[in-house]
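Lab notebook, bench 4. Still working through the backlog of constructs that have no structural model yet. Next entry is a single chain of 271 residues. Request: give me the structure tokens for it.
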Amino acid sequence: MYSLKDAKEYIKNADTIYITAGAGMGVDSGLPDFRGNEGFWREYPVIKDLGYSFSAMANPQWFETNPKLAWAFYGHRLNLYRSTPPHKGFNMLKELVHTKKDYFIFTSNVDGQFQKAGFNKDKIYECHGSIHYLQCTVCDIPIYSAKDIKIDVNMEKFEAKNIPTCPKCGAVARPNILMFGDWGWNSSRSYKQSIKLEQFKDNIKKHNYKTAIIEIGAGVHIPTVREESEYSTRELDGFMIRINPRDSDIDSTLGVSISLGGLDGLKAILK
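Model written out:
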């Protein structure tokens, strides 16, 4: 069995750092992780009254059938993510990776917090896309930035007062985010990011770099991040640190688990 001391020692001696992050990474910044319907409904009580779950709301159908509702949900989140500063754990990680030969970030989060914290955008793979980019629901216009888009939401009615539209054809626009039952997601931006991740891994293998995989706040309901962490630990012959206050179980041959939230867990291994 590995210990916290082993984790600290491995991180200290590692050549590269691979950060994998789920929704729990943003909790210490004050961002919701939508854990279960009750957690989701606490953030959006109006949606509870409507009887919709998170998976029902995070569905591209609404941009066709009820774009005011769709953009109330995603517009509120866009405003929230824009106004929320990343917590201190991001800076701790940034200080760490800048002492190493290389690093990369794999995240299922669509909030753009790693970029906001100052990490190199070319070293981030957002596997579910980003709310800070838009795509058209109809035409083939390339993905474009949402930086000039402002969404005003009536929270009582839970309706967007304005709907972003495609600059090419005028149809309703949507976030470039992979949703549930989503066959229309434009994955081209995320695909380019995935190529850079593979280049990072190839470089590790080429130079036989010692790699620490630090996973933060990755849940089991949608296990994309957890599976990437475990696969990459074996692929790169690395050492994994899983930080999670609830779902901290780990194969003891892969590394060590820390049953803490993101910020406290990072303090435990980096201070």
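Notes after review: The two ends are 22 Å apart (CA to CA). Residues 188-207 form the longest helix (20 residues). Flag for follow-up if needed.
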